[in-house]
Amino acid sequence: MASVRNWPRIVTYLSAVALLLLLVQYFLGLWTNVYAPSQFSSFDSGANYSPSLNVHIINGDLLFLVSVALLVLAALSRQLRLIAPAAALVVSIYVAGALGMAYVNSTPNDPIDSFGMGAMFLVALFAAAVLLMMSVRVQRAAKAAPAPIVGSRVA
Fold first, then answer.
1. pLDDT tens digits for range 114-139
2. Among 96, 79, 88, which Cα is nearest to 129's?
3. CA torsion, points 139, 144, 145, 149, in degrees to nearest 10?
4. Cβ(95)–Cβ(115) below 8 Å
5. What is the 8-class DSSP label of residue 38?
6. What span, in angstroms and rounded, lies between the C-alpha atoms of 39 and 122?
7. What are phi and psi of 57, to 5 degrees?
8. Residue 121: partners with Cβ closer than 8 Å, 6 or more residues away
9. Distance between CA atoms of residues 104 and 93, nearest Å
């Protein structure tokens, strides 16, 4: 098991993966909008969605799993600077997914769901970027801090 000092490094790598997945999600969303039917129907089953929408949904599920892993790792690091943006990332991805499913499954499609999905995407993008930046700062601070002397007592 990795030491507490290594958790921020793992968070750094995983938050970079989350940023990459968010960019992929953005372009999948654009692609889906271009080639999607004019209206998604609530009578469609998941199998009848367009292939780009199916990939968009799968990538969103993967993003949610990565964000939950980031929250767990941030909690294990015991750094509030990492926990807060990781929590914001989990919540924003969950809400964006819920709004996206509400949009696809409503007839006619509610534009406020689409707007909310886009707004939550921006929150997730910002949270992932902050998480990446803070994890790098935590690592730098850990390197700069002097190692405690074993057996010494601080008065």
1. 899 999 999 999 999 999 999 988 88
2. 88
3. 120
4. no
5. S
6. 24
7. -65, -45
8. 22, 25, 26, 29, 92, 96
9. 16
Task: Collapse the DSSP code of 130 into the 3-class scheme (helix H, G, I; strand E, B; otherwise coil) and give the result.
Answer: helix
The amino acid sitting at 56 is H
- Total count of residues recorded for the chain: 155
Show the DSSP H helices in 36-110 as ranges. Answer: 51-77, 80-104
Map residue 150 onto helix, strand or coil.
Answer: coil
Under 8 Å between Cβ of 117 and 103? yes
Name residue 150's amino acid: V
Q: Is the torsion defined by CA of 133, 136, 142, 144 positive or negative?
A: negative
Please return the burial class of 102, using the count of CB atoms within 10 Å of its CB with bins 0-12, 13-18 and 19+.
middle
> Hey, where are the domains in the chain?
4-37+45-144
For 8, the enclosing helix (H) or strand (E) is: helix 7-35
Q: What does the alpha-carbon distance between residue 34 and residue 136 come to, in Å, rounded to a whole number?
A: 37
Q: In the chain, how long is the greatest CA-to-CA distance? A: 71
Q: Which amino acid is at 89?
A: L
pLDDT digits over 42-76, tens only? 455 555 677 888 889 999 999 999 999 999 999 99
